[in-house]
Amino acid sequence: MKKTCLFLLIVLSGASHLSAQDFLVTKSRDTLNCTLGKLNNGVYPITFMFNDTLMSGTISQDSVMFVRKNFFRSLHDNRLRPWYPYIDVDIDIGTAHHIGVFQYDDEYSVGKSKTKARTGVYAGAELTYWISKRVGYGLKYNIRHYDFGKCEDALNPNKPVTRHGTLTEQFVGPMILFRFFESNRKNNVYFSFAPGFTWLALKDVPITIADYGTSTRRFSELHANTVGGSVALGYNYRLSRHVSAHLKMSYMIGYPRFVRIFSIENYTIDKTNLPNLAKYGNNINSLNLALGITFHK
């Protein structure tokens, strides 16, 4: 979750520098593309471009005839700001349902079935810059966390140790989006595709170890990573000019090519007799459903 918070902080700070600018008309009919500050003692602080130089000063309230906020795209661009939002920051949370078998021990018998797909928690964030009313590019991040129930090892058969095994999967990558507005120009349906990098951590789960002619199970932590992908379909419902609520369904896909042993408790790995890890972490596929908030700029 710390990585998620850091990602959101970078997203929000980056979006704050991409704001539209104001249109000002004076009583003498002069016009100006500027950033108009808050009125204080009858004067406005003002920032504008003059001969490619950023200038600042003040203007009297009595000299101003008309102000239209967020009228231009920027101080350097006199094109009108589009009617549609061109920067979106999405934050959502929901459920993730792992697709297919994800087993880690043939003799697993405590808690949930080893062949049963699991449902866990999903959280994600996205930053999108729209180059038109229908096409945008961005960055996507999400994390999915699953609880495997109780896991039992056999290090001490007379007094087995029980823990809760967990699986955590993360994804980050660029994305392309397509959106389609309703006739009211407020709500929209969108579709996205994101290739990227995904990694997983399987913690506190027992794997079978051939140890001096006998098989025992030891608690372990396994890591894997691979190139993956995500497709998503969502609906944005506008609540105000700068905020929307959204419902999103997405599908994550990826097949790790290898799994690395991160740690095995009370066991020194014998390189001539490594455990078979082919069945561990065989996919990161999941179907996700989430609700969230979209901030527009």
Order of helices and strands: HEEEEEEEEEEEEEEE
The average pLDDT value, as a whole number, equals 77
Radius of gyration from the alpha-carbon trace, in angstroms: 27 Å
Please count the beta strands (DSSP E, at least 2 residues each). 15
Beta-strand fraction estimate = over 45%
Please tell me what the overall shape is.
elongated
**Which class of secondary structure composition applies to the elements?**
mainly beta
Major sheet description: 8 strands, antiparallel, barrel
Question: Strands across the major sheet, in which order?
Answer: 7-8-9-10-11-12-13-15
| Alpha plus pi helix count | 1
Low-confidence stretches: 4-18, 104-115
Q: State the share of residues found in helices, binned by percent.
A: under 10%
Question: For this entry, what is the oligomeric state of its chains?
Answer: single chain
Distance between the termini: 26 Å
